[in-house]
Amino acid sequence: MPPSSLRVVYAFAREMHPKTTDVFIQYGTAGFRTKAILLEHVVYRMGLLAVIRSRVKNGRTIGMMITASHNLEPDNGVKLVDPDGEMLEEEWEAHATKLANVSDNDLEATTMEIIQEVKADMTLKASVFIGMDTRYTSPRLAAAAANGVIALKGTPKEFGIVTTPMLHFFVKCRNDNSYGTPTEEGYYEKIIGAYKNMRKSLPTKGDYSPCLYVDGANGVGGKKLKNVKKNFDEEELELHLFNLGGSGEKLNLGCGADHVKVTQTPAKGIPSTPYQRIASLDGDGDRLVYYYTDDKDKMHLLDGDRIATLLASYITELLQRCETTEVQLGIVQTAYANGASTKYITDTLKIPVQCVKTGVKHLHSAAHKYDIGVYFEANGHGTVLYSSKAKNVISRIAREGDPEPREAAKLLSQFIEMTNETVGDAISDLLLVETVLCARGISALQWMQLYTDLPCRQLKVTVADRNAIQTTDAERQCTSPEGLQQRINELVAKYPSGRAFARPSGTEDIVRVYAEAESQLEADTLAAEVCQAVFDLAGGVGARPEL
Ligand code: G16
In ligand 1, which atom is closest to the CA atom of 359? Predict the structure, then answer.
């Protein structure tokens, strides 16, 4: 494509999506995320980049999701999805950041520079799938995304309001039709079909009850569960849906997976029934945590670590029943994983476990290294990846094995079918969890009794520049500012079983602090002390955190 045809890139920008702010924006943990009013030019430009990416990938479809996931309503964001349904390749994040920050006058030249650098053949077709969450700012941003695609003569396809993992699924299916059909119906058919098939072999037993309350975070996930619910009779899964939005309640406010996990308090808007299992989704349906309150109204959280250990132990059991040693399973966590979960994985489950940096992209690529990789962040973001080798071994046993192993392999095949392998998916994960609880015949209380978490606390600190904090060792150690790690070490040393770290968030303009210790009071105090250290040494702004 000669440079003259890029003029439309500038024309669209100037006339429809001008850059009206000089605030620097960076492609972070999960794409660009900030106040929605600062994003229109960014999303338009990501439409351009998605077309270039599609052409570099020989015309395969790229995804664009308009969402700020767990963030509150005034924020929004955009993330790009690669052809296999995975997060954008990390090397391209620099192109994204560069393109998002140049002036309108430099946009045409910078677009050309990127095209040349990545050697995109601009004569090829380009296809971009666009989805959005329920935020009122999302339609406008989705339109900007489509304009970016059109400006470079790509073909946008808009899916309207869908969960983030649905969009990832559609992209994967469009590029690999053996995975499924790239429509919402295709998604339900695959995932719900597998659940129903599995439940035919796994009738309700023991202390498992198919009655489940769900907190939809007033976002898209809850809405989509209304469609899911229609497919089940009460014996298969009795869903009671709350926080579905639409009555003036705010997205993620006082509810949703992030609220439940971080504040360790129940979601509002849900009747309190002692020991009732409650599943809490986040705003775009890619995270899931469970909890229940006991007869003294104390909340008990079953987070991403619990989900990882539950799924991994069930898959391990099925592999044993398949009588195969050809398939190795591993778990991937981040520094936020509760120390007790890591100990349980190593000492009781005897499964290899690895710790990587926060961000699904890091967990996903680490999980690919195992035949079956189970990855979950403690915040409930995760899935299971099955290699072709694992799938081949399991389907061979399902076809040719002896009766016992054949039965186990058939169950495992359905479990694989139920998994959205592209990214963490609250709906798919919910069905996986319910399947395992049912297969084991256990209640939420019994699930909780598998191991005891160390008390922990997660807090936020506001600093002038969150990038003043640099980390290493999967974010468990600070390398800058000078003296901060030494101070954290001194604080941690005061508490038996204490552990703490600080890292800059990639989705909010803050520093996150995590601490765990033997008692809740100690974990709370340690977290507050580390917040003070961050505030003092890394340029805190506003009021100094209190102990
Ligand atoms: C996103 C990422 C997650 C990450 C979370 C918080 O989740 O996909 O991997 O754990 O942000 O990231 P940070 O601590 O860097 O702010 P979501 O559900 O908001 O898309």
Answer: 9
To test the pocket of ligand 1, the residue of 29, 66, 80, 509 to mutate (highest count of ligand atoms within 8 Å of its CB) is 29
pTM of the model: 0.96
Please state, in angstroms and as integers, the Cα–Cα distance from residue 12 to each residue in 18, 104, 131, following that order.
8, 10, 21
Residue nearest to atom 17 of ligand 1 (CA): 69
- Token pair of 31, please? 């794409």
Q: For position 2, what pLDDT does the model report?
A: 45
The residue annotated as part of the active site, out of 4, 5, 69, 178, is 69
Summarize pLDDT for 102-160 with one digit per residue, the tens: 999 999 999 999 999 999 999 999 999 999 999 999 999 999 999 999 999 999 999 99
Pairing label, strands 32-35, 75-81: antiparallel
- If you count them, how many residues does the chain have? 547
Q: Could you give the ipTM of this predicted complex? A: 0.96
178 is catalytic: no
> For residue 136, which phi and psi values (nearest 5 degrees)?
-70, -20
Could you tell me the two tokens for 275?
Answer: 């020991």
Q: Which domains does the chain have, with CATH numbers?
A: 3-161 (3.40.120.10), 187-301 (3.40.120), 304-448 (3.40.120), 456-537 (3.30.310.50)
* Binding-site residues from annotation for substrate: 377-379, 503-507, 512
